[in-house]
Amino acid sequence: METQKEKVKCLIIGSGPAGYTAAIYASRAGLKPVMYQGLQPGGQLTITNDVENYPGYPTGINGPQMMEDFKQQAERFGTDVRYGIATSVDFSGKPHRVTIDEQTEIEADTVILATGASAKWLGLESEARLNGSGVSACAVCDGFFYRGQEVAIVGAGDTACEEAHYLSNLCSKVYMIVRRDEMRASQIMQNRVKNTPNIEILWNSVTEEILGEHAVEGAKIKNTVTGETTEIKVTGFFVAIGHEPNSKIFQPYLEHDESGYLKTIPGTSKTNVDGVFACGDVQDNVYRQAVTAAGTGCMAALDAERYLASLEDH
C-alpha cells in the first residue's frame, strides 16, 4: 500500500485533557491543528465514572461525557479530530515525520505529544469486570466516594503509601496488600503508613480475586508464605502498582527518565527536540490529574505558537 503524505502546521497526538486543551488553544491561535485520538480516545478519563474534582462542574460529571465536551469545544474552533494511532516517528530532521496506522505520513512543523500513561493492572478477570464499579487506579480521583467505608489498596511504592494515607483520612479502614515482607517505598512514606492506626498492612499477600457481581464487595487474599487464603470485606479496591507512560516510539529521539516519562525543560513543555512538545501524563509522573494535564496542554499550544512565530521571524 502506498504511503499517503500530508503537511500540517501542528500535529497533536493523543486526546485526553492535555491533548484537547492543546487543541483548543492551538486552533484559536490559527495553527489549524490535526489531532489523532490514539488507542483510547479521551484517555484514562473514559474509564472513570464520576469526576468531581474538575473545576466548573459543580455537581460532577462522568469521565466520557467530560471528554466529549472537551472534544466538541476543540472541534468548534476548527481542530481536525481523527481516529488513528501514531505507529512510528522520525524526529531527526525538519519537518518532523509521524506515521499514522503505518500508512499515512504526516509532516509537521510542530508536534504536541499528549499520549498519556496507562495504569498497570493486576490482570484479574474480576478486576477488569469491576473497573469503574469499585475498582480504581486513582485514590485521589475516586477515594471520596468511599467515605466511611472499608477499602483495599495494592502496592508497595511511594505512590501506594501516599494513596493509602490519603484514603485513611476518608475511609474507616484501609487494607494495604503488599506482595513481599518489605516495601519499596521511601522510609518516610513507610513510617507514615505504619503509624496510621486505620491502615492494616497485609504482608506477603497477593490478590486472587476481587469479589462482587456488579460492584466490589470484597477480595480474596492469599498469603504467599503460608498458602492460606482469607476474604476481606471492602467496597473499594485501588490498584497502585505504577503507571507506564505511552512514550515508547518517541524514546529514540526524546530524553526520558528511567520509567519512560518524557523530560521537558522545567517551566515549559519543550522537549530536547525543537518543535516537539510534551504535555499531560506522558511527562508527569507526579500529579497525574485531569486539571494539571489540561494546564500543560495549554502550555504546549502556547509554546508551539511561539516556536512557529520565531521561525517566521527568521
Automatic annotation (TrEMBL):
<dbReference type="Pfam" id="PF07992">
    <property type="entry name" value="Pyr_redox_2"/>
</dbReference>
<keyword id="KW-0285">Flavoprotein</keyword>
<protein>
    <recommendedName>
        <fullName>Thioredoxin reductase</fullName>
        <ecNumber>1.8.1.9</ecNumber>
    </recommendedName>
</protein>
<keyword id="KW-0274">FAD</keyword>
<feature type="domain" description="FAD/NAD(P)-binding">
    <location>
        <begin position="9"/>
        <end position="297"/>
    </location>
</feature>
<keyword id="KW-0560">Oxidoreductase</keyword>
<dbReference type="InterPro" id="IPR036188">
    <property type="entry name" value="FAD/NAD-bd_sf"/>
</dbReference>
<comment type="subunit">
    <text>Homodimer.</text>
</comment>
<keyword id="KW-0676">Redox-active center</keyword>
<dbReference type="InterPro" id="IPR023753">
    <property type="entry name" value="FAD/NAD-binding_dom"/>
</dbReference>
<comment type="similarity">
    <text>Belongs to the class-II pyridine nucleotide-disulfide oxidoreductase family.</text>
</comment>
<dbReference type="InterPro" id="IPR005982">
    <property type="entry name" value="Thioredox_Rdtase"/>
</dbReference>
<dbReference type="InterPro" id="IPR050097">
    <property type="entry name" value="Ferredoxin-NADP_redctase_2"/>
</dbReference>
